[in-house]
Amino acid sequence: MSARHPRVLRMSSLFVRTLREDPADAEVPSHRLLVRAGYIRRAAPGIYTWLPLGLRVLRRIEGIVREEMDAIGAQELSFPALLPREPYEATNRWTEYGDGIFRLKDRKDGDYLLGPTHEEMFTLVVKDLYSSYKDLPLSIYQIQTKYRDEARPRAGLLRGREFTMKDSYSFDVDDAGLEESYQQHRDAYVRIFDRLGFEYVVVRATSGAMGGSRSEEFLAKAEVGEDTYVRCTACDYAANVEAVEVRAPAPVSYDAAPAAHAEQTPGTPTIESLVTHLNEAFPRSDRPWVAADTLKNVLVLLRHPTGEREALAIGVPGDREVDLKRLEGQLEPIEVEPMDEAALKEHPALVKGYIGPGGIAAAGIRYLVDPRVVEGTAWVTGADVEGSHVLDLVAGRDFTPDGTIEAAEVRDGDACPRCDEGTLESARGIEMGHIFQLGRKYAEALDLKVLDENGKLVTVTMGSYGIGCTRAVAAIAEGTLDDIGLCWPRNVAPADVHVVAAGKDEAVFAAADRIALELAEQGVEVLYDDRTGKVSPGVKFKDAELIGVPTIVVVGKALAESGTVEIKDRRTGERTEVPADHVVDRLVGLVSAG
Amino acid sequence: MSARHPRVLRMSSLFVRTLREDPADAEVPSHRLLVRAGYIRRAAPGIYTWLPLGLRVLRRIEGIVREEMDAIGAQELSFPALLPREPYEATNRWTEYGDGIFRLKDRKDGDYLLGPTHEEMFTLVVKDLYSSYKDLPLSIYQIQTKYRDEARPRAGLLRGREFTMKDSYSFDVDDAGLEESYQQHRDAYVRIFDRLGFEYVVVRATSGAMGGSRSEEFLAKAEVGEDTYVRCTACDYAANVEAVEVRAPAPVSYDAAPAAHAEQTPGTPTIESLVTHLNEAFPRSDRPWVAADTLKNVLVLLRHPTGEREALAIGVPGDREVDLKRLEGQLEPIEVEPMDEAALKEHPALVKGYIGPGGIAAAGIRYLVDPRVVEGTAWVTGADVEGSHVLDLVAGRDFTPDGTIEAAEVRDGDACPRCDEGTLESARGIEMGHIFQLGRKYAEALDLKVLDENGKLVTVTMGSYGIGCTRAVAAIAEGTLDDIGLCWPRNVAPADVHVVAAGKDEAVFAAADRIALELAEQGVEVLYDDRTGKVSPGVKFKDAELIGVPTIVVVGKALAESGTVEIKDRRTGERTEVPADHVVDRLVGLVSAG
């Protein structure tokens, strides 16, 4: 609600056209409806034009973000999108980003990129202006257009190639300062996402390509989201599935363990066939063999940003698959792909279906295992010979992996890594915000130091905090729409009230005109369907439902019959008859209440 | 003045550092001061980072522009900056822009550009949404980042490679509608530039690469400007020098004119030597020969955007040079360069210093002449033989050029093309706004048609209206600065009042704190120099002068002595002693008065 623009948006002249048909390329409901309701139009894959209604929603979101950033003393500035190569060279990201960024040359053959994120620029501007611990802490931010050359732009605004982000950075002289700056931003983010008015969850996250330590994501709950997160049924643990850390069991003593022994297990290249064979050929008295007793070794190919390729072996308990996305989450910016048969054949020591730690070591391949593979645990695994497995192979005695990695799939029902009671359950979400403690990675690469209290140069520590503003439009739409259209939370809707003149006679239009104007004068933002001619009330109702302004006022037949108009709540569908003379006061009250 | 952000900007924490030294690369005063006062920083040639103070000025300018656009019913939308090649191919601008735009490829080898202007996108979005004359007139606009790969980015923000523009377009069904939309925009522009608070002039302009007819520019008066304009001393004629149209004299009867005759004029390759020789060898009884009696033929090379090269001959009265910028203004997007001796030698019919219409025709070169060369006028010009000129060569009788062109230099004292009394005087300016009637060029190229009242398809006619927002920051700075710093007009200043705590004792800071806070609570935007420690009052005064907030309040020694503080007008230097208790009321009044 704002008194600054006492302008009524009239449907008769508003630059909008609603569509009855879904656009052919729209994959998700929010995308379909944002196009159909005339909020956005596609200009190129992953690149959108913002029509007036869409721009209003975007600006309201940006306004809320800006207010809360200003409230914690963060200062707004603005970097260019077209950036020189050099700073990104200094941090190696010019290379690390691989195909993921847009690169270009100017007329003098200079190298430029379209900024995907601005860590380097923020770091350099602080280095340029500041030099003393007295200047810190500092938080600075921008709301600005960013670019990524996504391999698969999808879902409309959810994964675009040109998009708007708020990105802020904190600069502190020590870790305690960073922790405080991080917490301030976290609190501001909670206020922002609360004000945006949709369901979200804060989860632990990996920090991916950014480096750094503590990291959390703000996810909108959504089936169409690209992120999977888990929550504990008992405690408040919540994490992006990529960031779940399996609680490693304590090491086991293997003093009494039998020696490892290779056995013939013909025709058992899969875990299922192996377990069946073990129970038939080597039955155990105390309990049957299960998949979790086996150690499955999976080979993948890592593609480093430099183009270099490397084979990697991952060992996981046989009841779990390797989750490539989780694996990639640990290894970013390295990309991962399964190793195909041809690549496997380059290593004669690896026997498909019977790969064991010995063959991996013989092939000279790095070997990382699931955290559950702790010292002293005994496993059945491949013997590197066709039709043969080793039993009672003890970690730390018979083989020593190069380290552990979180790559095994996380499943509903898994034990919570934090508490002893709960189990994990998963859901999908859209990443809308990400906050993390970058630490000194960029400050070191770009030599950002200040003098401390003792006159000694110390490297600054940084936090990084992002919100996808254009993505938020789609995520909020996705989280609030229903089967008849968009259904905006009040704080981000393109207008507060949608007045519909539903009739042909002049009295209806005169009353609707008056209501729209009086509302606007009182600071209510009004979308007014004043269309005449062939536009029927039915079409107007459908458009109002599609556009999704939270409160709809229908001025129609009841006006002549009983002097009333109807207030309709877009979300609940609830209708209230109100005397036409009282409707403005009622609506002003409703809108102020939020 | 605004009550929305009752926040005091404190110098102790504001992200700013003022510099005592001029930056090495700054060519013009506004650039030097914007960097020194901490408004902007260079990120790459022609590409700038906006620090908090600079961003505040930019946002205020954008806010004024937005208000006035909204006030004429223009609707805001937003196009991407990263654009696909195809629409620019359809209008041939992908080629025409030559090296002037940034081009890039995405990972799928698709061609993209960074939008230099958005005519194509605006045209296409209207084609997408609208189809009837009933939908028109329509004016839509955006405030958005644009890119040009300038050959010589210069003068800081004045000619940048990444910059922000407001660009709007009007769409009408007929010429009368376009005229009305144009006038509405023109009126809005006058209001905008009046509110920005600096000296500007509205001049006729050429429409350059954009095509179209009626066209005017809004220029800031500035010595450092790239544009030269002229004004009439008598009437209100004003034009960019590129757009000055010489009033062609009426054709002269040549019935009584003597026949043309070639004469020996040895050693007369220049106009000066020729005139001297004419007066010695062929004296006239009625008046001496002057340079204006001769016809000078100048050869240039045109470089078409396709890469094709073409020779062109320009004939101008011998008392004037060819103005390459004026010539280019007529020929855009073609680039022009002087023809060098080597290129001249490729045409044996052209004899350097003695080129005449005959040689030009023999060489098969297009020949355009100044509008003063009307039918029946007699000239002395080259005879295409070393050391020889033709006298009494009559236009329309002895030679017929291929057309006329406005390429001769315009000089102070030239007759006004409109009135009979005045003469022209020139000055320099910075182009801040440009409005023009595009007509149907883009609508035709992209097939934008609507049904008219009779159900017939008609091509829409368009107007195009731009304001350089980032450039405006520099232009206003340039037009208002003085020898001690920036000196902002009130409506665009980064704050309304700059409060300086000039002293060491606590009472001074307590009073300054109170004044700053009370002002902010009353909606005055306050920059408050609350720095303690080693920052002396002298440094604070210098910074306040450099930063250029229009009103400075000094809380200093007078507080203890007489209970007063000093209000200083940054522009006039005028100082007023005011009781500390009254200063807030005084300032609120001052700021509200504007």
Report on the architecture of this protein.
The structure is a homodimer of 594-residue chains. Chain A folds into three domains: 55-214 and 434-479, 2-Layer Sandwich (BirA Bifunctional Protein, domain 2); 261-404, YbaK protein; 495-593, Anticodon-binding domain (Rossmann fold, 3-Layer(aba) Sandwich), CATH 3.40.50. Helix content of chain A is 27%, strand content 28%. In chain A, the strands form seven sheets. In chain A, strands 4, 8, 9, 10, 11, 12, 13, 22 and 25 form a nine-stranded mixed sheet that branches. Chain A has a six-stranded mixed sheet with strand order 1-27-26-28-29-30, with helices on both faces. The first copy, chain A, has a five-stranded mixed sheet with strand order 17-15-16-18-21. The longest helix of chain A has 22 residues, at 175-196. The first copy, chain A, is globular, with a radius of gyration of 30 Å.
Search tags:
homodimer, 594 residues, alpha+beta, BirA Bifunctional Protein, domain 2, YbaK protein, Rossmann fold, 3 domains, globular, disordered N terminus
Radius of gyration of chain A: 30 Å
Q: Mean pLDDT score of chain A, rounded?
A: 93
CATH fold naming of the largest domain in chain A: BirA Bifunctional Protein, domain 2
Which overall shape of chain A is indicated by the principal axes computed on the Cα atoms? globular
The CATH homologous superfamily of the largest domain in chain A corresponds to Bira Bifunctional Protein, Domain 2
Can you tell me the residue ranges of chain A where pLDDT is under 50 for at least 5 consecutive residues?
A: 1-5
Could you say what the CATH architecture of the largest domain in chain A is?
Answer: 2-Layer Sandwich
